[in-house]
Structures are given as C-alpha cells and as structure tokens.
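Journal club prep, shared notes

We agreed each person brings one worked example of a sequence with its structure written out as tokens. Mine is Acyltransferase. I'm keeping it raw so we can talk through how to read the token line rather than staring at a rendered picture. Sequence first:
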Amino acid sequence: MATEKGRWVPLSLPRKWMTDLLRCAARVPTVAVGRTLRVRTIAEARKANGLSVGWGALLVKGMALVSTRVPALRQIYMPYPWPHFYEAPYSVASVVVDREYEGEHAVFSASMLYPERLSLTVIQEKLDHFKNAPVETVGAFRRLIRTTRYPLPIRRLLWRIGMDASGLVRARFFGTYGINSMAGGRIGMVQTTIPITAALFYDAVSREGEMSVQLAFDHRVFDGYTAGRILGELESVLNNELCTELTQGVPSHRNAA
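Then the structure, token by token:
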C-alpha cells in the first residue's frame, strides 16, 4: 500500500477552458442574493399555451426586459485605460449549456444578442439549437474549442484581450448577464465566481408556483439593493409582459433606454 502512487492526468479541453474561465472570473468580486419568485400566473399560462416555451427562454427574455428598466444590468466594469463602466446599448444573454464533448461532460456557453427584441418562440429555437445541434456547428462552441487548443500563454493573452480590450467585445463574447439552470440536478448555487456583471441561477417551479433563484453579481457595478430590485422587476415582467405574450401571442419588444 505504501508504495502505491497516483498518476498524472492531463487536463481535457473542457477542463482547460473551465480553468481559463475561472482565472478571469477570479478577478471579479462576486456576491450573491437569493429570492423566491412567485410565478404561478405565468406557470399556468405556460401550461395552457400550445407552444413549447421553457423556463430558460422566459428567464432569458425576462432578464433582458429588466435590463431596459435597470441599466446597471447592461454595465460592465472595465479597468483600462482607467476604471469605468461600459454600458451596452442592448442586452447579451450568456446561456450555459451542458453538452457531451469527446465522451466527457462539458460546460459551454453561447451568447444571444438583444433577446429583449426577440419573441419567446425565436429565443426557444435558439436555445434548442444550442442544446441539440452538433457541438462544432455552434459558432460559440467552435470558437471556444479552437481557442482552447492553443498553448497556455496564447490562451491567456486571448482571454485577457476579450476581457479588457473593449467593453463592446466583452459584452458580445461574454454577455451582459448569464442564465444557468440548477433544476436538472436538484441542487442550488451556494458559491460561485463569474466573469460577467450578473448571472441568474434558477431552480424548478414548486407546486405552489414558486421558483427559487439566486443572482450573482459584480459588486463594483451595483449593490444588494439593485440586485433585489432586479429580481423584483423580473417577477413582475414574468407575470405581466411575458404572460401576455404567452397568452395572446404578442411579443413584448423593448429597446434599452
């Protein structure tokens, strides 16, 4: 027993890009708040609707609509040439997708531009594409795989450029907010780091029509009060504008202020 030794296990591509991502995320002072959203109204509308619109699509658009009311959700802390906020003219949703790649579970993310201007049906189609299309046919996935094949020094340079060179580039490739479901594994987010301004983690809806959510955010951009307002506005948007879109088929489009 005493002579037994372990073995050297090289990092797979999915582990490499997660390591690269977390290295960038470690620079963001992340805190989180939680809330139970009352979503019975839209849950009932969703059941009655013939379209297959999932909670992911509803929350992607819900957060985008909230960002038109709360501009801080579209702001990104940029350190160069001196500390400032870049405010994007529209939302970019960063959607976390679990896929299998080369026989291994892998976490990908894909950006969706201005979801506040898209119908729920279109958003759902995009999410289905991210989840079901061959991995290397999805542009964001293919770009991540290609970048991760580079040697470590080049990867770090590319990630640094993406994070710090331009607010526009960072918003387009990293997103202004993220959406991640915890429902499938029956788990909740306890601690996290994120490379973006905000990320919403959501659980399954209970029989009472309630959904537990956690919002992780960059404390440099806004405080707990604003985080609470974002979640309150999200509950309102879900049960009003998006409920109307589900029941009447009228897309709730809104441009950022």
